[in-house]
Each structure stands twice: as C-alpha cells, then as structure tokens.
C-alpha cells in the first residue's frame, strides 16, 4: 500500500511540473462591446430585426474539447444589443450537419448539460473574477441557469427571470435571449461598466465544446478569471424598487388508509401563500415567504442502503435551493469521490419543513437575506415551523459570514440555532478555502454542536487538499466526527469516526489510444475509517480502478476492484438482515457501462459482485432511456440486491426496486411528468404525477398527485394519497 501511495505522489508531482496544458488566464483579456438600441426586440429566435445586423459580433474559435487549443470545427458567432430594459444576446450556432442531428433528449428545466446541444453565456457583473451568473439554452429553448463562486460553489437550482426562443434550420440553430437588468447584479454609481463575460457552445454530435475566451478543459467556463470583458456598457442604474412578488393559491386533498396513520379518510384545504424577493441594492437580496408550499418540488426516490453510512437525500425545494452555495458548506463526496463516503454539513435545509419520512411540516413564515460583494459575503435565514399538536412551534436560524482574501481565497463562519419548547440545539463552524496555485486548493472546516439539555459538546472537522490539471486529479481528505456531534440542522454520514481518504486518477490522451476513446483514466481510491473514541480500525476500502475509458461519443466503461475490511462492534441490519459483531474481510468487483446519453436510446449498467461480510452480495442496477423526441422521454430502471448466506441466520434473499419515469412536453413550458417505484422490501411503492404549465415567465399552474404505500408492522397495507392544485403569479416591480 505504501508503494501505491508513493507512486501516486510521484505521478502527482511529476505531472505538476509537466502541466503545460493547464495554462494561466490569457493577458490581455479579450474584449467585446454591445450596441445600445432604442426599441424593444421581439424574442422569437429569428433575428430578423435590422438592429441585429448592426450588432457587434464575436466568434467562438477556441476548442476546449476534445482538442484543447485547436480552432473550433464549427462556426459559432455571438451578437450583443441592449436597451433600457434588457440585455440581448444572440447565439448563432452553425452546423454542417444541419438540424437533423441536434441533440435534446428532454425539455427539463436545468437539463443535464452534457446530454444536449447548448449555447450559454456566463457573466461576472462585478468583474471580480469570482462570481458567475450563467444562462444556457438548448436548440428548443429549454432553460438552464446557475450562480457560481470561484468555480467551486454553485446554486445550480437558481431560476433567474429571463427569456429565450430558438429556431432550427439546415444550417444549424439560433438562440435569442433577453435578460432583464433586474435579474443581473452589477455595481451602482457607475456610468460605464466593464463586466467579465464568456460564451460557450456544446456541439453534442461530436461531443465538442467551444468558447470565446480560452480556458483549460480541466476547469469549467465558470472559472471567471479566464473570462473576457464586455466593455463600455451603459447599463441603467440598478432599480431602487427591484421587487418580485409571487403570490399563490393552493388546494390540497389528503387521504389516509391504514392502521399506521393517526388521520383516517380524506379532507381538503385551501391555502394562500407567497414569496417576495427584494433586491435592496446590487449586493443585497431579501426573500420573504409565508405559508410556504413546495408542491412543485420533485419527490424523493426510494433507496435501498446496504452501507454503514446514512443516505443523503438532496434538497429539492426552490426557496432553500437559492443561495444554497453560501449556506450549504461542508464536506461532500460528490466531486471525484474525494471525500470518500463521508459527508459533513453543519447546515442542511431538509431539516426544516420535513419530518423523518419526508412528509411536509407547515412553515408559517420565513426570511432570508444575502449580501455579496467583492470583499465579503454574509447571509441569514430565519424560519418558523408549526409542528402542531403538543410539540408547538420550532424556530430555526442560520447565520453565515465569509471574507474574501486576495483573489481566490476566503475564510468564514456559520452557526445554526434550533429552538424548541424543550431545548435548543446550537451548531457552529469556521471554514476556509485557499487556492494555493492554479491547480491546487485546500479546504478546511472545524465544527461543534451543543444541546441545552445535555452536558457534552460534539466536535467535527475536516481538511481536504485537492489537485487538478489536465493530466492528473489527486486528493487527500481527512475528517473527524466525535460521538456526541449532533447538528440538528445539519447532516453527518457517520459519528465517532476518523477518516482518511487519499486517491488519484490519471487522464491519458495519447495517439496510441483507439480513435473511439477520448481518454483513459485509471486510478486508486483508498478509504480508512477509525473509531474516534478508541482508535480501532472500523472499515477500510482499497479501491483500484485499472480501467476507465471515456468514449468520444460520451459513453464510458470502467472496472473496479475493492478489498474491504469491516469491524462491527454492534450488530448491523442492512435491509433487515442482521449481521453479528465480528471482523470481516472480503473482495468485490464492479463493472460500469454507459452509452451516449444524448441519443434516442441509451443505457447505464452498474454490476457488483463478490463478498459481503460473512456471505456474498450481487448487486445490479440497470436503466434504459427512450427519448424518441424532445417532446417525450421514458426511463426504465431495475435494481436488485441478491444476498447469499449473509448474517446470523445465513439468509439468502433478493430485494428488487423497479422504477419507471416519463415526461411528455408540448414545449419547455407545458409538461406532464410522472414516476412510479416499486420496492419489494416492505412492499413499498411510490407514485407521483405532476402537470406543470409556465403560462408566463416563472408563473405556474401545477396539478400534482402523490401516493405512497407500504406493508405495516401489522402486515396490513398502509396508503396515503395527496392531490394538490396550485397557481402562482410572478409580478416584477
């Protein structure tokens, strides 16, 4: 093992010296301008107004993928205009293959970028080379938008108010965007503005990415230090009354059947509510919510967990998703598996307004204020939740502050307070992010938690060193969680643990690879988990990834081998199979296969087999996607856990999870979406159907039906049904 780590270190620092392809930002920065016009434009994707013929034009000539630095194979041009109300952007995406091979598998807002032809713009209105506001569309006018900070923290579910229409022809496609000045954030008291800006295009049939201002392929277009400049812009002063009001009216019918529910039968209720967003100034935004409802939020999918780590269900509710990057700090295992299986977040918004079974708990009123500037950011959230019955109200408060240091570093602090009738829970954290070089960064955090009715104080901390260039991605993460750490407004995967997770993988692009292979990426991922209170090794994973290939089409294939050591100090019962305390060693083998997800028919396969504690477990997950047109798509999923001779009773059983999901769309604004899951564990099923009509920008009509059923402890069928109709209306002042 020591030799493997030494080899990884040698490869890391050798590649550091040879990282000539991860270039520094271009100097001087590329510049462009926008032309001022008097009249408003009709947004239809046709560009037939005379003003477009006179607009300044730039071309996307830099190829990011697959051959960084070469001249783009397809011509893409961008035009910029503005008037007193809007910034207009036109992306003209020429294509030698015409419109027949344009890829857009669905009309889902915030679509999966890698699966679509797309054109986008990213704006840094303060020109601080840190903040990014990104807006993207596909050839059918579907929208995706996000807020980014340092190309590391993202609000991917932020929905900005902007409009886009597209047109398609035999020579390619055109996107025409109109962004209101109220949506953008930029300094006041300036007559002339210079913004950081970049334009990019994904041509999916060749799996190519082009940009205007060059950036390395190991980064993203949201790394704003690589952006160009939109110069001499006479933007109007930010509006003093930049207020967005979204009132709504909702009718809900709830029906409960079964001995497991206190309520029985059906009942209906009407509820008014709404949200107000006030951009007090370009730096400060205040959000207010009352009688908060999340009928439009996507329902959670069922998961069969066979690990010793708690399952993390992501936030799906829009009010909490916005500005999540400021409050949602912590250790996440998502990026490059760098954190192993550990996740530590001092604040996790799902602890508000949802019970342990993901059922809504009424939120009476809430407020969030966020201030962002070149030097510092701070924010606060206050929520009152009505638990009902004898429990009474619960109050939640979150405070966050971060100070930017230099061009790419920051330090910060966060604290949460949960106040109930019986006790208070306080959690505090201090954190830092330091970009030590263009390719090397360090993230750190220290946390504590304290209950007013308990004497012990819980502690947690982590450090993560992360390196990325065009040839190597490497990391070393160490985390600690004490036995008493209990952030009741946060999330932690596991208590009483000290983890160490080093790892790396190579990105090899050489002429000797077959033409259908874009990159060969072997790697080593190591995870050690010790019990913090005793120092005993509790779990070890030695993961070797000798084969991983990314195909030119966007597909992939990989093989993993993992050696596991597990020490159980107390019994463990995955999917109701009880395993006795003991020490276990076993090996597992994994195969990953995935096809080009942008095609009309695509698939994904994950198959694992081998030992599992004192027996064996074969696991298969397979999904098939059918997308005959962007107007219709269907996903069929199957998952099976097949246990053999596992546990105290030497049980052999199979647990299946079936799923089907469909989306029918007349256009990106009128859609019918549904999914069904059947879990043979406890005979649990979930059914969700959602009709959504965006009848004007960010104003919706929803019809939602949810049903959940399972076999209770008394072996009788339990079932709950919810029918919801909701109409919301956005008014901008």
Topology:
Elements: H1 2-17, E1 31-32, E2 35-36, H2 50-53, E3 57-59, E4 62-65, E5 76-82, E6 86-94, E7 118-124, E8 131-137, E9 143-149, E10 153-155, E11 163-169, E12 172-180, E13 193-203, E14 208-211, E15 228-233, E16 242-257, E17 265-281, E18 284-292, H3 318-321, H4 324-327, E19 344-345, E20 363-372, E21 376-386, E22 393-405, E23 409-419, E24 424-435, E25 440-451, E26 457-468, E27 472-481, E28 491-492, E29 497-506, E30 517-520, E31 523-531, E32 537-551, E33 556-567, E34 583-594, E35 601-612, E36 615-629, E37 632-646, E38 651-667, E39 670-679, E40 684-696, E41 699-711, E42 717-728, E43 731-732
Parallel strand pairs: 1-15, 2-5
Antiparallel strand pairs: 3-5, 4-14, 5-6, 6-12, 7-8, 7-13, 8-9, 9-10, 11-12, 13-14, 13-15, 16-17, 16-42, 16-43, 17-18, 18-20, 19-28, 20-21, 21-22, 22-23, 23-24, 24-25, 25-26, 26-27, 27-29, 29-31, 30-32, 31-32, 32-33, 33-34, 34-35, 35-36, 36-37, 37-38, 38-39, 39-40, 40-41, 41-42
Keywords:
disordered N terminus; mainly beta; 4 helices; DUF5916; about 725 residues; 24-stranded antiparallel β-barrel; signal; 9-stranded mixed beta sheet
Describe the model.
This protein is mainly β and 733 residues long. It contains 4 helices and 43 strands. The strands form 4 sheets. It has a 24-stranded antiparallel barrel. β8 and β9 (143-149) form a beta hairpin. The termini are far apart.
